[in-house]
Amino acid sequence: MSQSINILWFRKDLRLKDNPALVEANLNAKILPIFILDDSNPKENKMGGASRVWLYHSLKSLNNSLENKLNYYKGDPIQIINGLIKHNKVSGVYWNRCYEPWEISRDKKIKNLLNLSNIKVKSFNGSLIREPWEVLKEDKTPYKVFTALYKKAYINSDITVKTLNKPTKINFPSIISASNSLDSLKLLPKLPWAKSIIKDWKVGEEEAHIKTNTFFKQGIENYKEGRNFPFKKNVSRLSPHLHFGEISPKQLWAKAKNINSNINIEHFISEICWREFSYYLLYHFPSLPKDNLQKKFNSFPWVDNEFFFDSWKRGKTGYPIIDAGMRELYTTGYMHNRVRMIVASFLVKNLLIHWHKGERWFWDCLFDADLANNSASWQWVAGSGADAAPYFRIFNPITQGVKFDIDGKYTKQYVPELKDMPNKYLFSPWEAPDDILNKANVVLGVNYPKPIIDIKESREKALYAFSLIK
């Protein structure tokens, strides 16, 4: 009698190590590994262009790890899984959970239908340290302040974080229903950008672990302070690998905990938990991507100015640290976290443009575009979210550039028009005397834009706008 088959549905867990669904599905059965590109989700949550590029290469890497046995499908997961069950001797379906509201709803429906068909179905936590429903306040309501949740759920709790080894052997069925090719998913945009944006990245589980080991050997030292400087090597750049599950937060937690605790290790762990907090908020407040958590912001007088927004997107604002960040985003699929805060503050406070528009642009341009992190972070900067930055905390792009890009290397890398500008005037080139501009080959308004707004006036306008909703 032939051995039964378990369907292993890969989603945002594109790895073999520490994959609980894989380990469970591999017990006493052959595994049929599948990936389904589900474009039926709500339009505003469809994967952005950069994410699709990363996903293509990550799936290619995973398929190599699975001895070229990964099966690709596109469409409604319910119909696809039912078709596989109909044509194969399937006894169970296994996956690791996702936490977007529409995915939770869809997965519940799939579980109910499979249970009615007497097909075993199990889901697992493969993406978080703790599930969002595990910790509530005394009054059984969810936390809205990070520090309170961090202390209760992670620091003062006795949680034990265990990681799983990759199965020593995975058995695959010899004959299955034909799947599509990876290319048939049409993940890669038909633009030269799709090739150029990925050229400096290495994708996949193996590369995620190489980058992790390098970070803990070289980058963790002085992490707490060094991570604020975009040209230093104190950030892990692991966020795309985490987003697609090429490495798990439990693996990073365990790696950090194996090192003697110090201020840098503790801060790195807290950053892992900020990611957890975003998922916690999305689970308990599923309207987070659309609705202000602080309702008073529903009446905020946002400005609809396409020139401002387009200048911001293209890195043509006339404020060099802003322009460097936006160009880094578009050309690399990534932006340093400190710079993310600076450019986001500039959009929602200096330009008074709704955080929705910034969130959507990040969604399309970031490899690590993550519904929970993206929504929570934009609301944090806008002042409308849980545990948000005070609205009057408006990042000054001039002083931020001077402070965090001290030698100008980051800015000059992404804004080469200013590569010969003395650092004294780099972040406010309009203040440079004509002879300095001439020596630097900078013609304001010609080869580098003049500032699109006055920073002091825009700050006053922002504070006035906020006073209207207090």
Structure, described:
By secondary structure, the protein is α/β, with parallel strands linked by helices. It is built from 21 helices and 5 strands. It has helices spanning 20-25, 49-65, 77-87, 101-116, 146-155, 193-196, 205-219, 223-226, 239-243, 249-257, 263-284, 306-314, 320-332, 337-350, 355-365, 371-382, 397-404, 409-414, 423-426, 434-439, 455-467; strands at residues 5-10, 30-37, 71-74, 90-96, 120-124. A 5-stranded parallel β-sheet has the order 3-2-1-4-5. Helix 1 links the parallel strand 1 and strand 2 (30-37). Helix 15 packs antiparallel against helix 16 (371-382). The longest helix has 22 residues, at 263-284.
Please state the average pLDDT score.
94
* Strand tally: 5
Q: Could you name the ranges where pLDDT drops below 50 across 5 or more consecutive residues?
A: none
What is the topology, as strand order, of the major beta sheet? 3-2-1-4-5
Structural class, please? alpha/beta
User: Between the first and last Cα atoms, what is the distance in angstroms?
Assistant: 72 Å
Tell me the overall shape. globular
Largest β-sheet summary: 5 strands, parallel
Helix/strand order = EHEHEHEHEHHHHHHHHHHHHHHHHH
Strand content: 5-15%
Helix content percent band: 40-55%
- The number of helical elements comes to 21
Report the C-alpha radius of gyration, rounded: 24 Å
